[in-house]
Design a protein that fits this description.
By secondary structure, this protein is α+β, with helices and mostly antiparallel strands. The protein contains 4 helices and 8 strands, in the order E-E-E-E-E-H-H-E-E-H-H-E. The longest helix is centred in the middle third of the chain and has 23 residues.
């Protein structure tokens, strides 16, 4: 649902709140059970996930992989925006997001995500690119949501 709301300026803006929906079905116990994930857009439709896809081998995805993909996608779009705002036109941004899960005293915890970014951006210097990449890491809505350490390496393709 799209609604009006207050932006950072405090003024009402149309369509400043967007809801995105995903539905999940889980059947059975943790170790033997299976589940499916579906998104409102239809990109994920009854996508399988299970204990085996999280901690072992198995066909399907897992929540941590999806978080990494969400951050990588969000960051890449934010970087494209930062570069565009600075007057550059990125040709390609390739981001690999690696989510690290650790068995802590509190239980399994997503402790950090590493972003490895390679981009082809004509006429941009390394310093300008790094400034845009750091701003994108800070401004990406998914990064702001996550309560974890997000580290990054970024390089320009020759």
């Amino acid at each position: 649902m799209k609604r009006g709301g207050q932006g950072t300026s405090g003024k009402l803006r149309p369509f400043s709140i967007m809801d995105r929906k995903a539905s999940v079905i889980w059947n059975g116990s943790l170790r033997e059970g299976t589940g499916t994930l579906s998104t409102e857009s239809g990109v994920l439709a009854d996508t399988q996930y299970s204990f085996r896809t999280l901690f072992a081998e198995g066909r399907g995805t897992n929540p941590d992989e999806l978080i990494a993909a969400s951050l990588g996608g969000c960051f890449s779009m934010a970087l494209s925006n930062e570069l565009g705002t600075a007057g550059f036109h990125p040709q390609r941004i390739e981001t690999t997001a690696t989510a690290t899960l650790e068995d802590l005293i509190a239980g399994w915890t997503l402790t950090r995500i590493q972003l490895d970014v390679h981009a082809s951006v004509p006429d941009v210097s390394q310093a300008q690119f790094m400034k845009a990449a750091l701003a994108a890491k800070t401004k990406c809505p998914v990064a702001r949501l996550l309560n974890t350490t997000i580290s990054m390496s970024a390089s320009l393709n020759p």
